[in-house]
Amino acid sequence: MSEELLINISPMESRVAVLDNGILGEIYIERHHKLGLVGNIYLGTVVRVLPGMQAAFVDIGQSRTAFLHVNDMQREPRPVAESKNKAAQTTKKETDTDINKDGGVLDDSADSLAVMPPVVSAQSTDVVPVTKTLIQHRLHESQRILVQVTKDQLGSKGARLTTNISLPSRYLVYLPSSEYIGISQRIDGEEERTRLKTELSSLMQTVNLKGGLIARTAAERVPVDKLEEDIYYLLQLWRTICARRQEINHHQSSELIYQELSLPLRSIRDLVHADTEKVIIDNTQVYEQVRYFAKEFVPFVYDRIVHYTAEQSLFDVHRVEDDLRDALKRRVDLKSGGYLIIDQTEAMTTIDVNTGSFVGGRSLEDTVYKTNLEATHAIARQLRLRNLGGIIILDFIDMLEQQHKDDVLESLQAQLAQDYAKTKITQVSELGLVEMTRKRTRESLGQQLCEPCSTCQGRGFVKTAETVCFEIFREIMRCARTYNSPKKFTVVAHAAVIDLLLTSESDTVADLEYLLGRVITFDVENLYTQEQYDIVLD
């Protein structure tokens, strides 16, 4: 599978598109006035501790306070001997750690790079070891604490935090407050996993690096000297963060300690791999920055970076703009004639599979089976492209044969295996439903590019003109009973409603005038929505 990376830069935003065999697979958008927070490290101030939720709200300088749950804090320290025994017992489990491309989270002292994270009080910068498990015993209001963002603000919810700092590089993720070496699940070969674990363990001892490391997927078959360079880079980065923390003015409630790389550089670090044929950039300054960064950290892709200088937009040439517009639609058409309906709600996302115009050729069961198989490919692509996360319900067309259900599920799992985000799916139910979850760290494409409709307030529908007409009739009768003096009623409404009142509902209007003994007139207001109307008493 060939892959290309397109980087489009404008004064307003940066966009990165990932093309799989010429088809848009993923899109990343970063507005310059609203940069993402995931990966940033802050020295924040606890503003509220909620024992009932075992959580705290932390001020990190954003419009909303961020959320820190007790499960996202380091565990209480164990004696050294116990820690070693525990680490030995859990080596196999930790080695299977999956890596999220957006990075993780952590914290500690510059000199020792010790296992425990520091908690900084408002009056002092002394390191305070965590010795309790309940959050009310670990945090208090006005306390200063080093945290990292794991999820951006989503809707009305503030950012999600952790004190388990993690620092990603090209091949590794450094975990200052952990005690293990993990290997990405995407690295399959047992021999390669063992090699990485052995070499990383040796390198950590050589450079006296305390903490934990995770080998990312890109580390597969990477020579030891490259791994060593990454370790030295991460060690220096962590020391810089610790030094920066010590320099902070304690009168400030929050301070940014470390900011994640910009989107173009982050995409080079996290998205390019051996199958990446080209990285095409349409901005001269960013092109030079990316080349310099690639030469230092991802040298194999250096010669594949291309500067796009043609007049036509880079995204237009590769039909990315068209695919982006399609990705905001509810309906996704399949090549066979079937289609998907995708609805995103506050609680979950539902995807409905339909045969549409596809009639097949052998039997109904065969038609349904082929439609569902084709839908698994489209579903996996849409989940990545739209960045849909949380709970997702897939409503496949009902199949009778168990083998067909198993094949559809197997196909879905195979397609989701290419997804960077962690997913978990269930078996096909008797109703043909599949429940799954997909890890969410940032807003979906629709949430990022759209807002609720001002006409329907996000419902997706409005009252019919006929319904509004009947509401107007009831309101006129209510006003006539309440106010005896008006001699005339003037209805001000949308053009579609007025047209209906003067045509199909004209007899009802005449009957109402006769019943009330008052004249009813009409005015069109083009600025009103179909549901808006006013009744003026004259």
Secondary structure elements and pairings:
Layout: E1 3-9, E2 13-20, E3 23-31, E4 41-50, E5 55-59, E6 66-69, H1 80-89, H2 91-95, E7 119-120, H3 135-138, E8 144-151, E9 160-162, E10 167-168, E11 172-175, E12 181-183, H4 190-206, E13 212-215, H5 224-246, E14 255-258, H6 263-270, E15 276-281, H7 284-297, E16 305-307, H8 314-317, H9 320-327, E17 331-333, E18 339-344, E19 348-354, H10 364-386, E20 390-395, H11 402-416, E21 423-425, E22 433-438, H12 445-449, H13 465-482, E23 488-493, H14 495-502, H15 506-516, E24 519-524, E25 533-537
Helix pairs in contact: 4-5, 6-7, 10-11, 13-14
Please describe what this structure looks like.
Belongs to the RNase E/G family. RNase G subfamily. Residues 37-164 form the S1 motif domain. This is Ribonuclease G. The chain is an alpha+beta fold and 538 residues long. 32% of the residues lie in helices and 24% in strands. The protein contains 15 helices and 25 strands. It has helices at 80-89, 91-95, 135-138, 190-206, 224-246, 263-270, 284-297, 314-317, 320-327, 364-386, 402-416, 445-449, 465-482, 495-502, 506-516; strands at 3-9, 13-20, 23-31, 41-50, 55-59, 66-69, 119-120, 144-151, 160-162, 167-168, 172-175, 181-183, 212-215, 255-258, 276-281, 305-307, 331-333, 339-344, 348-354, 390-395, 423-425, 433-438, 488-493, 519-524, 533-537. The strands form 5 sheets. Strands 4, 5, 6, 7, 8, 9 and 14 form a 7-stranded antiparallel sheet that branches. Strand 2 (13-20) and strand 3 (23-31) form a beta hairpin. Helix 13 packs across helix 14. The longest helix is centred in the middle third of the chain and has 23 residues, at 224-246. The model is unreliable at 78-131 (pLDDT under 50).
